[in-house]
Amino acid sequence: MKAAYLAPAITLFNEDGTLDLASQERLYDNLIENGIDGILVEGSSSEFFAMNMDERREMAKFAIEKVNHRVKLIIGTSNMVASEIIEFSNFCLDAGADAVMILPPYYFHFGPEALLQYYDRLAKEIHGPIYIYNFPDNTGYSIPVETVLQLVLMHPNIVGLKDTIPGVDHTRELIKVVKSRVPTFEIYSGFDDNFARNVLSGGDGCIAALSNLAPELTSAWVKAFRENDLEGIALGQQRIDRLMDLYRIREPFLPVLKEAIKLRGIVASSASTFPMPNATIEDDARILELLAKEDLR
Length: 297
Description:
The protein has one domain (4-248): Alpha-Beta Barrel (TIM Barrel), CATH 3.20.20. 48% of the residues lie in helices and 12% in strands. The protein contains 13 helices and eight strands. Helix 4 runs parallel beside helix 6 (145-154) and helix 6 (145-154) packs parallel to helix 7. The longest helix has 15 residues, at 53-67. The protein is globular, with a radius of gyration of 18 Å.
């Protein structure tokens, strides 16, 4: 059975707020060596929203150089200014990224007609593959399934969508409506625990954050699907379900995820962008307990 797990890579920072590129390279290498199918840079888990454009360009160039086509590389180019999205997207694609991923405009809620115009303009002016990023918890609204279908039929370079929703209802409808018309269109879930349901429904898998912490676990889960190993599929679901408790240790969850990756020895620092809170001693205790239960040391 076809399945893929892509990692929305976190961005590593030094304590002074500068990019920690040495740790970043170790993270990419660890993901690739442990069998991840692709990497998304500058998605929500990367804290792109707190990075200036110089940092974002530097991060994109670094990722393109270090990933070096070993796996699929998607760059998140979301912004509130359409011209900056277009310029940054073409910069990334020209430099060697495989695709870009773009949120709908946020702050205000936009209806189907405005969203159609928005992505229509972007697709016409970006000369490469585009993934739509639907994240209603953070944008305040969801992109309608019929709007996605219209866009995909209009623009062959709109090649997929990441659907970050707690349930699977919207994702299920995308699979039924869009993939039935365009089977090559890729549909990924944004939460780790939705991976199995996505694939079983005919989707393509996940772009989800726990893969930063345990790529060997998520890759084994993918392997179980590809080999039709029901016992392995169930084991992967159960382990991920338990690790989902990481998301609930504090809100926002990114400092906890970073601290967990640091505690595993994958990276040197768990520093985040201001005003993200640091993980606490109490957080560490809960993280270590979860890691020990899953034998992630």
